[in-house]
Write a structure and sequence with these properties.
The protein has helices at 43-55, 60-86, 101-112, 114-125, 135-155, 182-215, 219-228, 236-269, 281-307, 316-347, 350-361, 365-377, 385-388, 391-418, 434-458, 464-483, 493-501, 510-531, 547-568, 577-598, 604-614, 620-641, 649-653, and strands at 5-7, 17-19, 22-25. By secondary structure, it is mainly alpha-helical.
Length: 654
C-alpha cells in the first residue's frame, strides 16, 4: 500500500507516528492551535471565574471607571437639554455644512455595533468556536452602541417632540413619512437591528442566567434570575429548542449585518453630491463597520481580561484572531480609499476629482491623513505576531482604529459639504468649543488646586499654605490667558451667576456653563481619588470654626472677587492682560489669609467635587450658598460706581 499522508489532531505531539503503513505527520508549529481555555481549566472553574465577577464585592476600580462614565453621560444629557432649549445651532452646523458631528457620531456608533452581531451570528454559522469567550461582551457592546446611535437621528431633527412623525402612525394631521427618503430607511433599519440584537443577546443569556439563579444565595437575586431564565433546567429538550432558536436568530441577524450599514451608506450615495454619489459605499461601509467594531471589542476586552483575571478564558489566541479580522477589514477599507480616488479620476468629472483632491490637500487635510494613518497604516502592524501578542500595543492600536474610523465619517460628512459647487457657498465647519474649554479649564483648576492640598499633606507640608494659595491664583491666571478669549474662562458657577445677574450673559448659557464647571471639577477629583486612594479629604473645603463664621467669610471673599472680575472683564469674558493678573492675584491673596479659617473656596464647583469624592458633604451647603450670595451682592455694588449701562448684554457685543 502506498504511504498516505494525513493530518493528525492538532493537540498531539510533534513526533510522527507510523501505524499500519500510514504516516501521520504533525503539523508545523506555526499551525498548532492553542486550546480554547488555557491550563486545562474545568467547567466548574470557568463558572466560578465568570460568575464571581457579579457575585463578589464591587471592586474599587469599577467605581473609578463607573463614576467618570456617569459624569460623561450626565454631560451628554445636559448638552441635549441645552440643544433642545436653544436649537441645533449650538452644534456649529451652517451653510454649506448642514450636517455636523450628529451624523458623524450616528454612523460611527452604528459601525461599532456591527461587531457584536458579526461575532454572534456570522461566526456562529461558520462554526468558529473561538467566538464563545467574547460573544456575550460583544453583543452587550452592540446594544449600547445602537442605543447611542439612535440618539442622534432624533435630536438632529431639531424639534424632537415631532420625532414620532418618523413612524407610520395614523394621525389627525394626515402626515405620513416620506418613504423615498433614506433617512426614513435609517429609522426602520436601526430599530429592526436593535430589536433583533436584543433578542439575540437575551437568547444567549438564558443558560447563563439559569447558572446565576442556581448559584444565588439571596432570595431576591434567585427570584430575578429565575424570572429571566424562563424556567431553564438544562434538559435535552431545552437545549434542542435553544439551539434551534439561536440558529434562527443567527440567520435573521446575518443579513442585518450587511443591510443596516448599507442602508446607512445610502444616506450619502443616493445624493448627487461629489464625494457621496458612488456605488462603492455599501460594501465599503460594511467593511468599515466590522473594522471599527472589532477595534472597540479589543479596546474593551483587553483591560477587562486583565482586571478580572480572565486570561485563561480570553486567551492570546482570541486576541490574535480579532487582530487578524481587524487587519483583513482594515485592508479592505484601505482598498476602498484607493478605489474612490481611482473612480474620481476615471470618471472625468471635474467636481468629483476636486472633491477628493480637496480631501488630501485642502483645509481639512489633517483630518484626511489622520484617517489614512489610523485606518490603513496602523492595522498593517498586525501582520507581525509580536505585535498581536503584546496586549499594551494591541490596546493602543485598537484605540487608534476607533479614532481613525471616527475621522473617516468626519471626512465623508464634512469635507464633502464644505466646498459647494460655487465658491460663494464655500465655508469651514467648526464645532463649538465653549463647553469643551470650560470643562478643561475647570478640570485644571480643581486638579491643580486640590492636588496642591493633597500633595502638601502627603509630602509633610512641603508646599506650605502660601504655596497652595499661589497655586490657586496662578492656575486661574493661566486658564484666563488660555481660554479667556474663547469661553470667557468661566471656572466658577458663582461668577457665571454674577455675570447673568449683571446682564452680561444670556440666560440660556448659564446651565451649560455651570454643568461643565461641575463636571470638570468632579472629573479632576475622581482622578485625584485614583492617584491618592488613602487621602481622607482630597482637598475638600472644611470650616475650622463655627459654620456661620465660614459662611460670612465666604460671602465677603466672593463679593470682593466678583467685584474685581466685573471691573476688569470685557462683557462676560475674563480676558486681557490686566484681567488675568488682577483676578489671579485676588484669589491668591484671599486664599492666603482666609484659607486656614474657611478654606477660601469662593467657588461651588471647587468645593462640590472633592466633597463628593471624599464623602465630606456635611458643610457643603456653606460653599454653595455663600459664594452665590456674595456674587449676587457684587452686581449692585459694581453698578453703584460704574457708568450707566456697564452691565448689559450690549457690553459684550461692543
Amino acid at each position: 500500500m502506498a504511504d498516505a499522508v494525513i493530518s493528525k489532531p492538532l493537540a498531539q505531539s510533534d513526533a510522527a507516528n507510523q501505524v499500519a503503513g500510514i504516516v501521520v505527520k504533525a503539523p508545523p508549529r506555526e499551525l498548532e492551535r492553542e486550546p480554547m481555555v488555557r491550563n486545562q481549566r474545568s467547567i466548574g472553574w470557568i463558572s466560578d471565574a465568570i460568575a464571581g465577577v457579579a457575585e463578589g464585592k464591587t471592586p474599587r476600580w469599577w467605581w473609578l471607571a463607573f463614576i467618570p462614565s456617569v459624569i460623561m453621560m450626565t454631560a451628554c444629557f445636559t448638552m441635549i437639554l441645552y440643544l433642545v432649549s436653544v436649537g441645533v445651532g449650538v452644534w456649529g452646523p451652517g451653510h454649506p455644512v448642514m450636517w455636523g458631528w450628529a451624523i458623524v457620531n450616528f454612523v460611527w456608533w452604528i459601525g461599532i455595533g456591527h461587531a457584536g452581531t458579526l461575532i454572534s451570528a456570522i461566526l456562529f454559522l461558520l462554526r468558529q468556536k473561538w467566538r464563545t469567550s467574547i460573544n456575550r461582551a460583544a453583543e452587550a457592546m452592540t446594544i449600547f452602541a445602537v442605543m447611542c446611535a439612535g440618539i442622534f437621528p432624533v435630536i438632529h431633527i431639531g424639534r424632537i417632540w415631532f420625532g414620532w412623525w418618523l413612524f407610520p402612525i395614523p394621525n389627525g394631521n394626515d402626515i405620513w413619512p416620506q418613504f423615498r427618503s433614506p433617512l426614513m430607511w435609517d429609522v426602520f433599519a436601526v430599530s429592526t437591528y436593535f430589536t433583533v440584537s436584543v433578542l439575540f443577546w437575551y437568547m444567549g443569556l438564558i443558560p447563563d442566567l439559569a447558572v446565576m439563579r442556581d448559584r444565588a444565595k439571596n432570595k431576591i437575586r434567585k427570584f430575578a434570575y429565575g424570572l429571566f431564565s424562563l424556567g431553564w433546567t438544562g434538559s435535552n429538550r431545552h437545549w434542542s429548542n435553544y439551539e434551534k432558536a439561536y440558529l434562527i436568530l443567527a440567520g435573521l441577524s446575518t443579513p442585518l449585518v450587511l443591510s443596516v450599514h448599507s442602508i446607512v451608506s445610502l444616506d450619502f450615495s443616493v445624493s448627487q453630491l461629489p464625494g457621496w454619489h458612488t456605488t462603492i459605499f455599501p460594501p465599503y461601509f460594511v467593511a468599515g463597520a466590522v473594522f471599527s467594531g472589532f477595534g472597540m471589542v479589543l479596546s474593551l476586552l483587553i483591560p477587562l481580561r486583565r482586571v478580572l483575571r480572565l486570561e485563561d478564558i480570553i486567551t492570546l489566541r482570541h486576541v490574535e484572531l480579532m487582530c487578524k479580522v481587524t487587519l483583513a477589514t482594515g485592508s479592505i477599507v484601505g482598498y476602498a480609499y484607493g478605489i474612490e480616488f481611482f473612480i474620481a479620476w476615471y470618471s472625468g468629472n471635474p467636481y468629483e476629482r476636486y472633491a477628493f483632491i480637496n480631501r488630501a490637500t485642502g483645509h481639512y487635510a489633517w483630518a484626511y491623513w489622520t484617517m489614512i494613518t489610523c485606518n490603513v497604516i496602523v492595522p498593517q502592524l498586525f501582520w507581525f505576531k509580536k505585535i498581536r501578542t503584546n496586549m499594551l500595543v494591541v490596546f493602543i492600536l485598537s484605540i487608534l482604529v476607533n479614532i481613525g474610523m471616527w475621522f473617516e465619517r468626519f471626512v465623508i460628512v464634512v469635507i464633502s459639504l464644505h466646498r459647494d459647487f460655487m465658491p460663494s457657498n464655500w465655508g469651514y465647519f467648526r464645532p463649538t468649543w465653549v463647553d469643551i474649554l470650560t470643562f478643561l479649564g475647570t478640570f485644571g483648576l480643581v486638579f491643580a488646586g486640590t492636588g496642591a492640598i493633597i500633595i502638601n499633606d502627603v509630602s509633610n507640608h512641603a508646599i506650605t499654605h502660601t504655596g497652595i494659595a499661589l497655586t490657586f491664583g496662578l492656575v486661574v491666571l493661566a486658564m484666563i490667558y488660555t481660554v479667556g478669549d474663547v469661553s470667557g474662562a468661566h471656572l466658577n458657577p458663582a461668577v457665571t451667576l454674577g455675570f447673568w445677574l449683571a446682564r452680561r450673559l444670556e440666560g440660556r448659557s448659564v446651565l451649560p456653563y455651570i454643568a461643565s464647571q461641575c463636571l470638570g471639577g468632579i472629573a479632576a477629583s475622581a482622578l485625584l481619588r485614583y492617584l491618592f486612594l488613602r487621602h481622607a479629604t482630597l482637598g475638600a473645603t472644611l470650616p475650622s470654626g463655627p459654620a456661620w463664621q465660614s459662611f460670612v467669610l465666604e460671602v465677603v471673599l466672593t463679593f470682593l472677587l466678583m467685584l474685581v472680575i466685573l471691573n476688569v472683564s470685557t462683557g462676560a469674558k475674563e480676558k486681557g492682560i490686566t484681567a488675568g493678573i488682577a483676578i489671579g492675584a485676588v484669589i491668591g491673596l484671599e486664599a492666603m489669609f482666609a484659607g486656614p479659617i474657611s478654606g477660601a473656596s469662593m467657588n461651588p464647583a471647587r468645593s462640590l467635587a472633592p466633597a463628593l469624592m471624599s464623602g465630606h458633604v456635611q458643610s457643603l451647603w456653606i460653599y454653595i450658598v455663600a459664594p452665590a450670595v456674595g456674587a449676587a451682592l457684587a452686581v449692585p455694588a459694581c453698578c453703584a460706581f460704574r457708568e450707566p449701562g456697564c452691565c448689559s448684554l450690549a457690553t459684550e457685543k461692543t
